[in-house]
Structure formats: C-alpha cells, structure tokens
Specification:
Largest interface: A-B, 68 and 68 residues
Order of helices and strands of chain A: HHHHHHHHHHH
Radius of gyration of chain A: 21 Å
Helix content of chain A: 55-70%
Oligomer: homodimer
Shape of chain A: flat
Largest sheet of chain A: none
DNA sequence: ACCTGAACACCGTTCAAGT
DNA sequence: ACCTGAACACCGTTCAAGT
C-alpha cells in the first residue's frame, strides 16, 4: 500500500501495525479470513515478515484480542443503585460482544474469552464492591453473571455461524420434532426464535437478584 | 486392521463405521485429531474412500454429533416435583457435556450445539410441560435454562482447551490485576477457581425458580 | 457399488540468506 | 534490525480411473 514492493528491505512495519491489520481482517471477514498469507498480502509484505513481528498466529490472535479488549473497556456506566450499575455493565458485555461478533467468536474458538472480557470483569468487580459484595461472594457473583452472559452469546452466535448443513439452528431442529408429551403450543413456540434481549434481561435480573442483595 | 490392504477393492466399510471411528478419534484426541487422512489411516483405507461414505468433513461432524446426541438421550430422570426433575435434567446436560468434552467442544466450535442437545431439550420440554409451563413461557424457560448451562460449559472448557500462551485462564489473568477500587479479598478470591458445581447449582436454581412456578 | 492414486489449492512454520 | 524466497509438513477436496 505504501511504495515500492518486494525489492528487499524497509517496509516500515511494526508489530502494532500487524495486529491492527489482523484485527481489521477478522472484523471484516471472520476468523477464517485471518491467514498469515492473506495478512501479509494485505500489508504488501512477505509472509515470513509477519512472523518476525508477532511470532506466531496464536500470539497474533492473543494480541488482537487484547487490543479489542482495551477498547471495549472505555465505557460509562449508568444506573442509580449498584444493582442497576451491575446490570448495565452486564448488558454492555452483551452488546459489545454482539457489536464485535467476529472477534468474540474467534476468542471463543481459541478459548480466550476471559482475555477479551478481563477489563469488563474488572469494572464489574468494582461495581460489585460498591454494592458490598466482596471476597468469595464477589467472585461467585462475578462468575455467575459472566457465565450467564456467555451462555446468551453462544446462542446468539449460533444464528450466524457458517451456514452448516441446515440442521443447525434450534428452530429448524424443532421443526422436525413431534412429541405427544409436549403441548403443541410449546412446540409451536420453539419453532420461532425467542425475544433474546427480553429473555436476557429477565434471566440476568434473576441471577443478579440472587447474588447481589439490595 | 482387517486384512490385505491397498490391493484395490473391498474394505467392507459403511458410513456407520466411518462415523463411529470418527467419534472415537475425537473422543480420544479432540477436534484437531479428526483429519480425513488420519481417519482413513485408522480404517486402513484410502483418504478418498471416506468421502465416498460421508460426503465431506462437515457432514461427518454433523453425523458424529448426531450419534452422540442419541446416546446421551438415554437417561432416567429423578426428582419428585416437576421442578426437581427439571433441575435433574439440566444437571444431566451439564455432566454429560463434561463427560464428552471433546465432542461438546467440537460441536461448540462448529456451532452445532443445538444439534447435540436437541434430545435433551426435548426431555426438558416434557418436564416443563408436566410442570405446567407451556407455549411461549415454555420456550423461554427452556431457552433460559439451556443458555445458563451453555455458559457454564464455556467456562468449564476454558480450563483444558489447548494451552495457549498462558494468559488464558481467568485466574492467571486476575493474578496480574491490581485495582484499589476492588477489595483485596475479592481479587484474592478471583485468583482461585470457583466451586463450579456449587455455583452451577445455585445459579441454575435461581433461573429455574424464575421460570417455573411451584 | 465401492475403492484407488494423483493432483489442486490451500494452510502454519522454519531457516538460511540478504541488506 | 528488518525482510526475503524456498522448502517442509501438513490440510480438505475433486476427479478420472480401476474392479
């Protein structure tokens, strides 16, 4: 993208640039678009140059997740009671994961979700602290809330993940079910997607109510 | 494993055999061990033979998940009240996912979790029906419970997934955190793993209590 | 119907070599 | 210090060909 290519030296690249480009690649094309070769081509550089800057694909992915993680941490929390603020934060984890679904899915695939969510977990810990929930109770409350959010994300991501041999979405699966021990109205309802945001809200509220007292 | 190899014909293989072998491969070595070439070698057959029987890797994975899914459905549900039976079933989803973590992780990776859990969801729907929770309320209750379980599984699987550049487990991540707006006892607690089964139990109970009345 | 080898278009990664 | 090409050891998949 810059100037003369391939002559042999000086591309003016640094690891930050590589990581940024990798992040852009994933945001645009999903996890499978992040190939060392594609990335190198994008940067107008030999494939092996990438390795010099970031070590390996795994390290690159960790760095990229860390970058997004920092950016996601810049939020302002609203709510009067500590409880409301905890809810607000949990909602933020949810919405920002949806806003960056490709990276979230990637983090999820490689088992680095906690890396992505650490700053948000930290903010959550602060609010829980303000609500008087500390120590082991604080940890348990935090973990329970984060798990709840993670569960909803798994479901939300099912809808877009690669269009696998149909049979992948719950609604389509339930369309093939007939069971006389289940009321027809239930089966009917299971064939349509739930109101995820509303369901998220009431489930989260139940968990928060359990773990953080008034 | 059988007899003369490579001469040219008759291996006595059928798609069921291929799927079974693939399942064994994943159970033993995780998702990354399932390679068309390795599978073929295991079966003493040319790589392309696999394709004749199962079409593609994606179809093979779907079939393998479907197979385990059926096997997981054979359970007996205990509990006196419908609520207890719902709890028992949710616990079963959790424990059987842990018992077959490699396949569960695979299903999770390719977004086929719902395929794996369909029979258990069906059983859950029946118990909810018996508890008088039907129609849209039934669907929402079912989804909320399943999401909750999914969230816990995400966390449980973090612990074993490939040993990525350290920085991957929450406890290790929290070991690097210092924040004077969080009580030291909380940070201390976050550096040790939670009692997952106990936490699962109380969180699940909160969700069930919210969605299925007595 | 069932199975084969050869070949294609990809991967991540290493390494000796250049400037 | 920064960048290169060649090469290695893998992938999934297709296809014409054998019996």
């Amino acid at each position: 993208m810059v100037d003369a290519k391939g002559t042999g030296h000086r591309a003016g690249l640094d690891s930050a640039g590589v990581i940024e480009a990798a992040l852009a690649l994933v945001e645009a094309g999903g996890a499978e678009a992040l190939t060392m070769r594609k990335l190198a081509a994008e940067l107008g550089v030999a494939t092996t140059t990438i390795y010099w800057h970031v070590g390996s694909r795994d390290e690159l992915i960790s760095a990229l997740i860390g970058l997004l993680s920092q950016r996601q941490a810049e939020i302002e929390i609203s709510g009067k009671t500590p409880r409301d603020r905890v809810m607000c934060l949990a909602r933020h984890v949810w919405t920002s994961a949806l806003a960056h679904r490709n990276v979230t899915a990637l983090a999820h695939q490689v088992g680095a979700t906690s890396l992505l969510e650490l700053p948000l977990e930290q903010a959550l810990a602060r609010e829980l602290d303000a609500a008087g929930v500390r120590g082991e109770a604080g940890r348990d409350a935090l973990r329970a809330i984060v798990m709840c959010v993670a569960g909803f994300l798994v479901v939300a991501f099912r809808s877009d993940g690669r269009a696998r041999a149909m049979q992948t979405q719950p609604q389509e699966l339930w369309a093939t079910v007939s069971d006389d021990r289940i009321d027809p109205s239930t089966i009917e309802a299971l064939r349509t997607p739930p109101d995820l945001p509303a369901l998220f809200e009431t489930t989260l509220r139940a968990v928060v109510d359990t773990f953080v007292p008034e």
